[in-house]
Design a protein that fits this description.
The chain is an alpha+beta fold. Helix content is 39%, strand content 24%.
Amino acid sequence: MPEIILRNLQNHFKGLLSAIEPSDSRRALVASQAGNVREFLQAYAFETATPHTRLSGSYGRQTAIGAIRDVDVLVFVPQDARDQLPNAVLAELRRTLETYPNASVEVAGQRRSVRLTLLDHEIDLDLVPAFAAGKWDDMLEVPDRPKQEWIRSNPLGYAGRLSDLN
């Protein structure tokens, strides 16, 4: 392929990519707001386990596009939370988040999470309680509200495998 055609293709691809990538300011805003929620949970005594929270989903994998409206956040819960029904842990998380300033909390329609909508920033944080039986970056257990049980999941491992494939 001639060099000029290759350069044109590269330029077109870069242009398309820049049209869908989130702005640096939006990325920074989302990161700071996720950090604020983590600090809020710790201040209001919602007990978490190290590493406390971890970004997941497309934002956590750095594959989010557009304005980054939806952010998935794993909230690591301690070992004794495993003895509770997942619905009880989700209810406790919801009650804690109901006092978060300038936000609304919703659980309807959420199978594994509590949705915290940050009204001033148009950001939905889906907070998923996660129990790590071993290492936090290994297989996790997350709630399944309809089944009323903890189910195995590996969202962080999925992100790693996806990055490896990329």
